Input
Amino acid sequence: METDFAPDDEISVLDIAVVLAESWKLILGSTLLAGALAYGAANLVSARYQSEAIVRLSPDEVALLLSPRVIDPVIRNAASFSEFGSSVTSARRAILQAMSAEQLNGGDMYQITLSGRDPVAVQTLLGDLLEQLSKESVPVGDRAELLKQDLMAQQEALATLRAALSRLGGSLERAETTDTGTSLPLVGAGESIVALASATEAKRRDIQNTTRALEGSVGDSDILQEPTMPDEPLEQNKLFIAAAIAALMGILATVYAFFREGWRRSQNNPAADEKVARIRRALKWSLKPD
Output
């Protein structure tokens, strides 16, 4: 159906209404078709499951968890994690995209999450990654030797503090049974004992920390929540995706309808020949000879 337009080539509200009325089937049909196809495609995508663990980590340990030192050995020892890629490099990239480490409340607790299509495989993989992290956190080489030397020095210092505390305790007991003039002042002795006891406790904590560092900075006690077994898939917002694609297709169909009407108008309007020629040149269309 041809539509007569004013020769001044202006588009009125009535012209817009005419184009929409003549093209509503095209616009509505393409919108519904695109939405249906998008929703169907979203349903064909496999559901993804997410396993979570809560671990006490330092920033350096988080970086180590996300490094090839931890990920690559797990990939090589994995029985089957084909969904993450056919090679170690591609599988590492896929794991890094599927894994995240979120700090909780600004402290040293991190929520480690890993998503995938197989809930059992995801839980197993996250557990293997944490186990490998624990192994890689064990110091080796010069670092291990320095820690051993620190531990020996701390143990010697602790023995010295305990001996001094024992001697001071004996002096205090003797002071209580002798004359005040020849005994160690009780007040000063009491303060010394408190100071030595505090230093002894601090040194004992240093020994514990050094021993823990030698055994690995990430241990079983740091894993506050083991990797969970996901029983429900993640939400994929299928309706939102379908609606967005349908809306985009509706816009494109509307633009096409107005473009088609403008092209139709140009056929009956000699003044539009120059505009048509410019469009053809811009799109590099071949001009046919008259």
In short: The longest strand covers residues 49-56. The CA atoms of residues 161 and 167 lie 10 Å apart. The chain has three domains: 13-44+238-266+274-279, 49-138, 141-215.
